[in-house]
Specification:
InterPro entries: Porin_dom_sf. This protein is mostly beta strands. It has helices spanning about 1-20, 110-120, 130, and strands spanning about 20-35, 40-60, 60-70, 80-95, 100-110, 140-150, 155-160, 175-180, 190-200, 210-215, 220-230, 240-250, 260-270, 280-295, 295-305, 315-325. A hairpin with a 2-residue loop joins strand 2 (about 40-60) and strand 3 (about 60-70).
Protein backbone atom coordinates (compact mmCIF):
# COMPACT_ATOMS: atom_id res chain seq x y z
CA UNK A 1 0.00 0.00 0.00
CA UNK A 2 2.84 2.41 0.85
CA UNK A 3 4.37 1.95 -2.62
CA UNK A 4 1.00 2.63 -4.23
CA UNK A 5 0.54 5.81 -2.20
CA UNK A 6 4.04 7.04 -3.01
CA UNK A 7 3.50 6.35 -6.71
CA UNK A 8 0.19 8.23 -6.71
CA UNK A 9 1.67 11.19 -4.84
CA UNK A 10 4.66 11.32 -7.20
CA UNK A 11 2.38 11.46 -10.23
CA UNK A 12 0.31 14.25 -8.67
CA UNK A 13 3.34 16.33 -7.73
CA UNK A 14 5.05 15.87 -11.09
CA UNK A 15 1.83 16.88 -12.82
CA UNK A 16 1.63 20.01 -10.69
CA UNK A 17 5.21 20.98 -11.56
CA UNK A 18 4.89 20.20 -15.27
CA UNK A 19 1.72 22.27 -15.59
CA UNK A 20 3.26 25.15 -13.66
CA UNK A 21 0.35 24.96 -11.21
CA UNK A 22 -0.12 27.45 -8.43
CA UNK A 23 0.04 25.44 -5.18
CA UNK A 24 -0.97 26.22 -1.64
CA UNK A 25 0.44 24.64 1.51
CA UNK A 26 -1.26 24.87 4.90
CA UNK A 27 -1.45 22.84 8.07
CA UNK A 28 -3.15 22.10 11.39
CA UNK A 29 -1.43 21.06 14.63
CA UNK A 30 -3.42 19.39 17.42
CA UNK A 31 -1.65 18.90 20.76
CA UNK A 32 -2.77 18.17 24.31
CA UNK A 33 -1.99 17.56 27.96
CA UNK A 34 -4.07 14.83 29.65
CA UNK A 35 -4.50 14.01 33.33
CA UNK A 36 -6.52 11.13 34.85
CA UNK A 37 -6.52 11.71 38.63
CA UNK A 38 -7.89 8.28 39.59
CA UNK A 39 -4.92 6.43 38.07
CA UNK A 40 -2.35 9.20 38.21
CA UNK A 41 -1.78 8.94 34.47
CA UNK A 42 -0.75 12.14 32.70
CA UNK A 43 0.93 12.92 29.40
CA UNK A 44 1.77 15.57 26.83
CA UNK A 45 1.06 14.52 23.25
CA UNK A 46 0.73 15.67 19.65
CA UNK A 47 -2.44 13.92 18.52
CA UNK A 48 -2.55 15.10 14.92
CA UNK A 49 -0.49 17.14 12.46
CA UNK A 50 -2.04 17.75 9.05
CA UNK A 51 -0.02 19.21 6.18
CA UNK A 52 -2.00 19.85 3.00
CA UNK A 53 -0.78 20.79 -0.47
CA UNK A 54 -3.43 21.77 -3.05
CA UNK A 55 -2.61 22.70 -6.65
CA UNK A 56 -4.83 23.93 -9.49
CA UNK A 57 -3.70 22.03 -12.59
CA UNK A 58 -6.36 23.67 -14.77
CA UNK A 59 -9.59 25.62 -14.34
CA UNK A 60 -11.45 22.38 -13.66
CA UNK A 61 -8.66 20.08 -12.42
CA UNK A 62 -7.20 20.08 -8.94
CA UNK A 63 -4.97 17.81 -6.86
CA UNK A 64 -4.63 17.44 -3.10
CA UNK A 65 -2.12 15.66 -0.91
CA UNK A 66 -2.49 15.65 2.89
CA UNK A 67 -0.16 13.97 5.37
CA UNK A 68 -1.13 13.15 8.94
CA UNK A 69 0.88 12.39 12.07
CA UNK A 70 -0.26 9.86 14.66
CA UNK A 71 1.18 7.61 17.33
CA UNK A 72 1.91 4.03 16.28
CA UNK A 73 0.19 1.23 18.17
CA UNK A 74 2.52 -1.53 16.93
CA UNK A 75 4.83 -3.03 19.58
CA UNK A 76 7.96 -2.66 17.46
CA UNK A 77 7.40 1.09 17.02
CA UNK A 78 7.15 1.59 20.80
CA UNK A 79 4.61 4.38 20.48
CA UNK A 80 6.66 6.57 18.13
CA UNK A 81 4.92 9.16 15.96
CA UNK A 82 4.74 8.28 12.27
CA UNK A 83 3.77 10.17 9.12
CA UNK A 84 1.26 8.76 6.64
CA UNK A 85 -0.93 9.83 3.72
CA UNK A 86 -4.47 10.85 4.70
CA UNK A 87 -5.70 12.22 1.36
CA UNK A 88 -4.21 12.04 -2.13
CA UNK A 89 -6.69 12.70 -4.91
CA UNK A 90 -7.29 14.20 -8.32
CA UNK A 91 -10.46 16.30 -8.70
CA UNK A 92 -12.31 17.15 -11.90
CA UNK A 93 -15.23 19.58 -12.06
CA UNK A 94 -17.56 20.94 -14.75
CA UNK A 95 -18.06 17.51 -16.32
CA UNK A 96 -21.58 17.13 -14.90
CA UNK A 97 -24.24 19.87 -14.94
CA UNK A 98 -24.57 21.60 -11.58
CA UNK A 99 -20.86 21.84 -10.81
CA UNK A 100 -20.42 18.38 -9.27
CA UNK A 101 -16.92 17.29 -8.22
CA UNK A 102 -15.45 13.93 -9.23
CA UNK A 103 -12.50 12.69 -7.17
CA UNK A 104 -10.28 9.65 -7.56
CA UNK A 105 -7.56 8.31 -5.25
CA UNK A 106 -7.33 8.40 -1.47
CA UNK A 107 -10.49 10.39 -0.85
CA UNK A 108 -12.69 11.82 1.91
CA UNK A 109 -15.72 9.72 2.80
CA UNK A 110 -19.10 11.46 3.13
CA UNK A 111 -19.77 11.59 6.87
CA UNK A 112 -16.78 12.13 9.20
CA UNK A 113 -15.48 15.39 7.75
CA UNK A 114 -19.03 16.69 7.37
CA UNK A 115 -19.79 16.16 11.07
CA UNK A 116 -16.40 17.59 12.10
CA UNK A 117 -17.39 20.75 10.24
CA UNK A 118 -20.59 21.06 12.27
CA UNK A 119 -18.99 20.16 15.62
CA UNK A 120 -15.96 22.37 15.01
CA UNK A 121 -13.82 20.81 17.75
CA UNK A 122 -11.81 17.99 16.20
CA UNK A 123 -9.07 19.18 18.58
CA UNK A 124 -11.04 17.64 21.48
CA UNK A 125 -11.12 14.23 19.81
CA UNK A 126 -12.86 12.23 17.13
CA UNK A 127 -16.57 12.68 16.53
CA UNK A 128 -19.14 10.04 17.52
CA UNK A 129 -18.95 7.60 14.57
CA UNK A 130 -15.20 8.13 14.10
CA UNK A 131 -14.41 7.41 17.76
CA UNK A 132 -16.47 4.21 17.63
CA UNK A 133 -14.48 3.08 14.58
CA UNK A 134 -17.59 2.08 12.63
CA UNK A 135 -16.79 4.43 9.71
CA UNK A 136 -13.47 5.54 8.23
CA UNK A 137 -12.82 9.21 7.43
CA UNK A 138 -10.88 8.36 4.24
CA UNK A 139 -10.49 5.44 1.86
CA UNK A 140 -9.24 4.48 -1.60
CA UNK A 141 -11.86 4.91 -4.30
CA UNK A 142 -13.94 7.41 -6.28
CA UNK A 143 -16.44 10.05 -5.14
CA UNK A 144 -19.01 12.40 -6.59
CA UNK A 145 -20.52 15.33 -4.69
CA UNK A 146 -22.54 18.40 -5.51
CA UNK A 147 -25.72 20.39 -4.88
CA UNK A 148 -29.11 20.42 -6.58
CA UNK A 149 -32.50 22.12 -6.16
CA UNK A 150 -30.93 25.54 -5.88
CA UNK A 151 -28.28 24.40 -3.38
CA UNK A 152 -31.02 23.18 -1.02
CA UNK A 153 -30.01 19.51 -1.36
CA UNK A 154 -26.42 18.35 -1.05
CA UNK A 155 -25.28 14.87 -2.10
CA UNK A 156 -21.98 13.05 -1.54
CA UNK A 157 -21.49 9.47 -2.71
CA UNK A 158 -18.44 7.21 -2.80
CA UNK A 159 -17.41 3.71 -3.85
CA UNK A 160 -14.32 2.65 -1.89
CA UNK A 161 -12.37 -0.44 -0.86
CA UNK A 162 -14.00 -0.36 2.57
CA UNK A 163 -10.91 -1.12 4.66
CA UNK A 164 -10.09 2.55 5.34
CA UNK A 165 -7.03 4.63 4.59
CA UNK A 166 -4.75 2.65 6.93
CA UNK A 167 -5.29 -0.74 5.27
CA UNK A 168 -4.79 -2.36 1.90
CA UNK A 169 -7.62 -4.10 0.07
CA UNK A 170 -7.85 -7.74 1.18
CA UNK A 171 -10.96 -9.05 -0.59
CA UNK A 172 -13.24 -8.38 -3.56
CA UNK A 173 -15.90 -6.41 -1.68
CA UNK A 174 -16.45 -2.69 -2.12
CA UNK A 175 -18.24 -0.22 0.13
CA UNK A 176 -20.78 2.29 -1.16
CA UNK A 177 -21.66 5.31 0.98
CA UNK A 178 -24.09 8.16 0.42
CA UNK A 179 -24.95 11.29 2.39
CA UNK A 180 -27.89 13.54 1.59
CA UNK A 181 -28.25 16.89 3.36
CA UNK A 182 -31.26 19.14 3.01
CA UNK A 183 -31.48 22.69 4.27
CA UNK A 184 -35.20 23.39 4.78
CA UNK A 185 -34.70 26.73 6.56
CA UNK A 186 -31.82 29.07 7.30
CA UNK A 187 -29.10 27.58 9.57
CA UNK A 188 -30.88 24.21 9.82
CA UNK A 189 -29.76 20.99 8.11
CA UNK A 190 -31.31 17.53 8.01
CA UNK A 191 -28.95 14.73 6.94
CA UNK A 192 -29.10 11.03 6.24
CA UNK A 193 -26.17 8.69 5.67
CA UNK A 194 -25.97 5.05 4.57
CA UNK A 195 -22.96 2.76 4.17
CA UNK A 196 -23.19 -0.75 2.73
CA UNK A 197 -20.83 -3.48 1.52
CA UNK A 198 -21.28 -5.00 -1.94
CA UNK A 199 -19.70 -8.05 -3.61
CA UNK A 200 -18.79 -9.36 -0.17
CA UNK A 201 -17.25 -12.82 0.21
CA UNK A 202 -19.95 -13.52 2.80
CA UNK A 203 -23.17 -11.51 2.25
CA UNK A 204 -24.70 -13.16 5.32
CA UNK A 205 -22.42 -11.00 7.51
CA UNK A 206 -23.28 -7.40 6.55
CA UNK A 207 -21.51 -4.30 7.91
CA UNK A 208 -24.13 -1.67 7.20
CA UNK A 209 -24.25 1.76 8.85
CA UNK A 210 -27.10 4.26 8.94
CA UNK A 211 -27.02 7.75 10.51
CA UNK A 212 -29.66 10.43 10.80
CA UNK A 213 -28.92 13.96 11.98
CA UNK A 214 -30.69 17.26 12.60
CA UNK A 215 -28.44 20.28 13.17
CA UNK A 216 -28.65 24.03 13.79
CA UNK A 217 -25.55 26.15 13.23
CA UNK A 218 -25.08 29.90 12.97
CA UNK A 219 -22.26 32.27 13.81
CA UNK A 220 -22.80 31.96 17.57
CA UNK A 221 -24.48 28.65 18.38
CA UNK A 222 -24.43 25.02 17.31
CA UNK A 223 -26.84 22.29 18.39
CA UNK A 224 -27.05 18.88 16.72
CA UNK A 225 -28.18 15.33 17.34
CA UNK A 226 -27.22 12.05 15.61
CA UNK A 227 -28.72 8.58 15.77
CA UNK A 228 -26.56 5.72 14.48
CA UNK A 229 -27.33 2.08 13.71
CA UNK A 230 -24.42 -0.26 12.93
CA UNK A 231 -25.17 -3.75 11.64
CA UNK A 232 -22.16 -5.93 12.35
CA UNK A 233 -20.87 -3.18 14.64
CA UNK A 234 -17.83 -5.01 16.05
CA UNK A 235 -18.25 -8.54 14.72
CA UNK A 236 -20.62 -10.59 12.61
CA UNK A 237 -24.02 -10.88 14.23
CA UNK A 238 -23.57 -7.93 16.59
CA UNK A 239 -25.79 -4.93 15.92
CA UNK A 240 -25.00 -1.62 17.61
CA UNK A 241 -27.02 1.55 18.10
CA UNK A 242 -26.50 4.88 19.81
CA UNK A 243 -26.84 8.64 19.69
CA UNK A 244 -24.78 11.79 20.07
CA UNK A 245 -25.97 15.25 21.12
CA UNK A 246 -23.52 18.14 20.93
CA UNK A 247 -23.48 21.90 20.98
CA UNK A 248 -21.38 25.04 21.25
CA UNK A 249 -22.16 28.60 22.35
CA UNK A 250 -20.06 31.75 22.07
CA UNK A 251 -20.08 33.27 25.53
CA UNK A 252 -19.81 36.90 24.42
CA UNK A 253 -23.44 36.63 23.33
CA UNK A 254 -24.21 36.46 27.07
CA UNK A 255 -21.37 38.52 28.57
CA UNK A 256 -19.49 41.03 26.38
CA UNK A 257 -16.37 40.60 28.50
CA UNK A 258 -16.04 36.97 27.37
CA UNK A 259 -15.16 37.75 23.77
CA UNK A 260 -13.27 34.83 22.21
CA UNK A 261 -14.62 32.26 24.68
CA UNK A 262 -16.88 29.37 23.61
CA UNK A 263 -18.57 26.72 25.76
CA UNK A 264 -18.82 23.21 24.30
CA UNK A 265 -20.71 20.13 25.38
CA UNK A 266 -21.32 16.64 24.03
CA UNK A 267 -23.05 13.44 25.12
CA UNK A 268 -22.40 10.11 23.33
CA UNK A 269 -24.32 6.92 24.16
CA UNK A 270 -23.61 3.64 22.39
CA UNK A 271 -24.56 -0.01 22.76
CA UNK A 272 -22.24 -2.20 20.61
CA UNK A 273 -24.55 -5.23 20.84
CA UNK A 274 -28.22 -4.50 21.43
CA UNK A 275 -28.87 -8.21 22.13
CA UNK A 276 -26.47 -8.25 25.08
CA UNK A 277 -27.20 -6.63 28.45
CA UNK A 278 -24.85 -4.32 30.36
CA UNK A 279 -22.43 -3.50 27.54
CA UNK A 280 -23.51 0.07 26.72
CA UNK A 281 -21.44 3.15 27.53
CA UNK A 282 -22.04 6.87 27.83
CA UNK A 283 -19.51 9.68 27.44
CA UNK A 284 -19.85 13.25 28.72
CA UNK A 285 -17.66 16.05 27.39
CA UNK A 286 -17.76 19.64 28.63
CA UNK A 287 -15.30 22.48 28.23
CA UNK A 288 -14.45 26.07 27.38
CA UNK A 289 -12.23 27.26 24.54
CA UNK A 290 -10.48 30.56 23.94
CA UNK A 291 -9.52 31.62 20.41
CA UNK A 292 -6.19 33.45 20.45
CA UNK A 293 -6.29 34.30 16.75
CA UNK A 294 -8.43 32.90 13.96
CA UNK A 295 -7.91 29.13 13.80
CA UNK A 296 -5.67 29.00 16.88
CA UNK A 297 -7.29 28.14 20.19
CA UNK A 298 -6.88 26.60 23.64
CA UNK A 299 -9.55 24.23 24.95
CA UNK A 300 -9.94 23.12 28.58
CA UNK A 301 -12.33 20.20 28.96
CA UNK A 302 -13.35 17.19 31.02
CA UNK A 303 -14.05 13.83 29.35
CA UNK A 304 -16.00 11.36 31.48
CA UNK A 305 -16.73 7.77 30.33
CA UNK A 306 -19.20 5.52 32.16
CA UNK A 307 -20.08 1.92 31.24
CA UNK A 308 -23.02 -0.20 32.34
CA UNK A 309 -20.65 -2.90 33.57
CA UNK A 310 -18.49 -0.42 35.49
CA UNK A 311 -15.34 -1.63 33.74
CA UNK A 312 -13.30 1.09 32.06
CA UNK A 313 -14.91 4.03 33.85
CA UNK A 314 -12.59 7.05 33.53
CA UNK A 315 -12.63 10.80 34.08
CA UNK A 316 -9.85 12.80 32.45
CA UNK A 317 -9.05 16.50 32.24
CA UNK A 318 -7.44 17.96 29.12
CA UNK A 319 -5.70 21.03 27.83
CA UNK A 320 -5.98 20.98 24.04
CA UNK A 321 -4.18 23.31 21.63
CA UNK A 322 -5.08 23.85 17.99
CA UNK A 323 -2.85 25.82 15.61
CA UNK A 324 -3.79 26.50 11.99
CA UNK A 325 -1.15 27.90 9.65
Amino acid sequence: MKKAILAMVSVFLLAAVSYGAEGKLDGVLLAQYMSTPASGANAFDVTRMYLTYVAELASNVKMRYTTDLARSVTPEAKGAEFLFAKYAWLEITKIIPGGARLRFGLIETPWIGFEDGIWGYRVQGSNFADRLGVISSADFGVSLDGKILGDNLEYFGVVVNGAGYKSAETDKSKRAELRLTGRPVKNVSVSGFVSKDYWSDDPSKPRDRTIGQVAYKDGNYTLAGDYLVATGSTAAGKNGAGYSIFGTAKLDTIFNALSGYTAIGRLDQYDPDTATASDASIRYIAGVSYELIKGTLILLDVDRLRTESGAGNTTSAYVHVQVKF
